[in-house]
Amino acid sequence: MPKTTMTLRMLSILALAAALFTGCQKESSDGPVTIKVAYPVAVDAPVTDILNQYAEDYMAIHPEVTIETVYAGGYNDVKTMIQTTIDGGGDAPALSVLLATDLFDLANAQYLTSMSAHLDAMDGRDDYLGDFLPVFMENSYYMDEIWSLPFQRSAVVLYYNADMIAEAGLEVPTDWESLGETAGALTLREGNSVTRWGLDYSSDWPYWVFQPLAMGAGQNIVGAGDTEIYFDDEAVIRAIEYYNDLSAKYGAMPAGVQASWGSAVPDFVTGNRAMIVHSSGSLSSILAQADFNVGVMGVPGETEGTSFSVPGGGNIYMTAGLSEAEEKAAFDFAVFMTDAARAAEFSIATGYIATRTSCGENEELQAYRTEHPQVEEIQNILGTAGKEFAIQNLGEVRTIFHNYLQAAFNGQMDAAEAMKTAQEESDRALADFR
Amino acid sequence: MKNNKKTTVLPYLLILPTFVFVCIFTIYPTIASFVGSFYQHRLNVPRYREPVFNGLGNYRDIFASADFRMILQNTFVYVLALVPLTILAALFFALWLKNKRFARLRIAIFHPTILPMVSAATIWIFFLTPDYGLFNQFLRLFGYSGAENWISNPNLALMALVLVGFWKEAGFYMIYYLAGVQNLPEDVYEALKLEGAGPLTVFFRFTLPLLRRTTLFVTTVAVIGAFRAIDHVIVMTSGGPSGTSTLLLYQLWKVRFENLNIGQASTITVILVMVLLLFTISNFLLNEKRGEK
Questions:
Q1: Inter-residue contact A415 to A241 (CB < 8 Å)
Q2: Backbone angle region of A154, left / alpha / beta, with phi > 0 → left and psi within -120 to 50 → alpha
Q3: So what's the pLDDT on residue B100?
Q4: pTM, rounded to two decimals
Q5: Is B41 part of a structural domain of the chain?
Q6: CB spacing of A412 vs B7 below 8 angstroms
């Protein structure tokens, strides 16, 4: 008898579990809309507070819309989450902030919805789009449609300790040669050990920080087309050789691949490095910590008086498979998030670059720029920025490029040979897309 | 008769929830990956967005690729370096700290286990910083003067991962051995003492064989854990430089979510499952056989 009771109990537990399971399935209704916004936390700034505030402000104006913010780690985590949720038939975030360069692959895989239809239906479409800095819009177009809106954008810059340079009676570098010499002169040695390096040129985010060097030699690694690459170009090879020369010839930094992204900023603000190449997104943190005059510029080019940069960071994308009401709310919130006044505030709070021209009219940002001329400088550097490495089949091609770039940095391969192989392998990886 | 029938139903009912979960989350995905591995299925290539049958093409491509062979080699080196090291250390700690008065030391050795791997790896990046990093400073005490840029050196990056895995896991497996050691029969050891058996004899002839089941369990868990390592690869090296620290699971993640190549990701999954299955079964059989002797 007790066993019968037991069996019955088990059955009822199972029935309950089944009921709970089906009960948890999403309800769908036509009334109020709920959208999720997935956001990567990639910098040392109170972005979660800011984003939550955006959501609250928006919901105050639009009570029929509920916005849930999802903070899912870094860019890669958000990208992975979007894919697993959509593949699993789950409730994917309607908006997500992903790398600007993620466009082609994700659009091909139909994880994204183009924003063109909504933009076309918008009053003042051209004014709205035209107000974004053009260089930030470069990664938004694909198949004659617009897929993303610039949101948290940055650029590669060279930070220098202006006091240190002045004390040594040196000048701010203006080309490759003077960068190497200045950095070499600022390197301090005690016996066999180095107590201060003149330059920290990280090789984390390898393609990104390398691009200004390649452009400085006269050829970006990527062309205007979505399958156009120039890895084995003579200029690109020269740029690798210059990177290696920074240690071998000028003695300005340690040899080989530098995994110094995380330590570069602390080292710079404590005076252990005279110059670092880093993201413009680190500016706020550097200014807050450094007790010396911080200079900022593009990475000097091979020719006297030139300097180069490349944009980076994330755009807002709209996910595929949304209902009409969700799409509408999502797009509207995306426009709300990219509003010029908010972009200006966001720039002050985080150190990301103000994405829109009219941000310059914002008084707070003007005051902030007067106080920190470096912010203005970074805005100017963008004028010298080229296209960030975005291409079809990016994951595979980027890995190939990184592998051979690092092999060349570490002296395992000669630069020309490494780039020749990288070009051949990448051409094969791109064959399906040409 | 009636009663008998009921007793046979109940056990099945009891395992039903687990069985359903295993089916949904283990058996079904394994079969799906196995089937998927025979298809060319690439989400970012329009003509392969729907799976196209490709026979053994994925396996051929993967084994023909020098990069993948290097990744397999990295993974085996990682497992073969990490597992014996952690198990030896775990056993050593357990024997050393079995006495209650060492409770505090046990906590010290166990504490890395509590940290999430991501935090542990982040801390170790700073330990491994060239020049002033703690780890290099420590090595210099012993006269080390070699390469210091562990994470970016093609010969050292994988070892840096082993180091972090070791630091993180050894304390965890110590707990299993501690439990095993504390369950060893006291009287046997007293008898051994009376017989005048030396410490080496006691260890190799009695302690080690008596801990055989613990060792079987720990080895299985440690090997599977080592094959599944990914967190510190992402945080510390991103598989670099030049792929020299890319492990199988990291490659799987990259192929699926970065390259959007589902067919190839399925193939890697099948390879991973096969390797683990082979290991677990052979480990189990070998130990069962020895148990029968």
A1: yes
A2: beta
A3: 84
A4: 0.90
A5: no
A6: no
How far is the C-alpha of A431 from the C-alpha of A197, rounded, in Å?
Answer: 43
* Helix B262-292 vs helix B212-227: crossing angle, to nearest 10: 170
Cα gap A239→A302, rounded to integer Å: 9
Residue B16 included in any domain: no
User: Please, are residues B43 and B255 in contact by the beta-carbon 8 Å criterion?
Assistant: no
Q: B237: which DSSP letter?
A: I
Residue A283 is classified by DSSP as: H
The secondary element (H helix, E strand) that includes residue B100 is: none
Phi, psi of B149 (to 5 degrees): -85, 70
Quick one: tokens of B61? Answer: 């491509």
Both tokens assigned to B286: 């070998």
Burial of A224 (0-12, 13-18, 19+ CB in 10 A): exposed
Asked if A188 and A195 count as a contact pair (C-beta separation under 8 A), the reply is: yes
Residue B200 lies in a domain: yes
Chain-chain contact of A406 with B242 (C-beta, under 8 angstroms): yes
How close is the nearest chain B Cα to the Cα of A79, in Å? 8
Instruction: Judge whether A343 and A354 are in contact, CB under 8 Å.
Output: yes
Question: Looking at this protein, which amino acid is placed at residue B15?
Answer: I
Residue A32 — left, alpha, or beta (φ > 0 → left; ψ -120 to 50 → alpha)?
beta
CA atoms A140, A144, A147, A148: torsion sign: positive
pLDDT in tens, B228-263: 999 999 999 999 899 999 999 999 999 999 999 999
ipTM value: 0.89
How far B76 CA sits from the closest chain A CA (Å)? 21
Give chain A positions within 8 Å (CB) of B153.
Answer: 256-257, 410
Residues of chain A scoring pLDDT < 50: 1-2, 19-30
Which helix (H) or strand (E) covers residue B128, if one does?
Answer: none
Task: For chains A and B, count residue pairs whose Cβ atoms are closer than 8 Å.
Answer: 114
Q: Is residue B72 situated within a structural domain? A: yes
- Tell me the backbone φ, ψ of residue A392, rounded to 5 degrees: -60, 150
Would you state the structure tokens that stand for residue A119, as one six-digit string? 């933009």
First to last CA, chain A: 73
Residue range(s) defining the domain that contains residue B210: 66-292
Cα–Cα dist B136/B138, whole Å: 5
Enumerate domains of chain A plus CATH numbers. Answer: 33-154+312-381 (3.40.190.10), 155-311+387-433 (3.40.190.10)
Q: What would the pLDDT profile of A305-362 be if each residue is shown by its tens digit? A: 999 999 999 999 999 999 999 999 999 999 999 999 999 999 988 888 999 999 989 9
Which CATH number does the domain housing residue B89 bear? 1.10.3720.10
CA distances (Å), origin A366, targets A354, A373, B14, B58: 11, 10, 69, 57
| Residue type at A368 in one-letter notation | Y
Nearest chain A Cα to B13, which residue? A10
Distance from CA of A110 to the nearest CA of B (A): 8
CA distance B159 to A251: 28
CA atoms within 13 A on the CB side of A156: 30
Yes or no, beta carbons of A7 and B13 under 8 Å apart: yes
CA distance A282 to A45: 10
The number of distinct structural domains making up chain B is 1
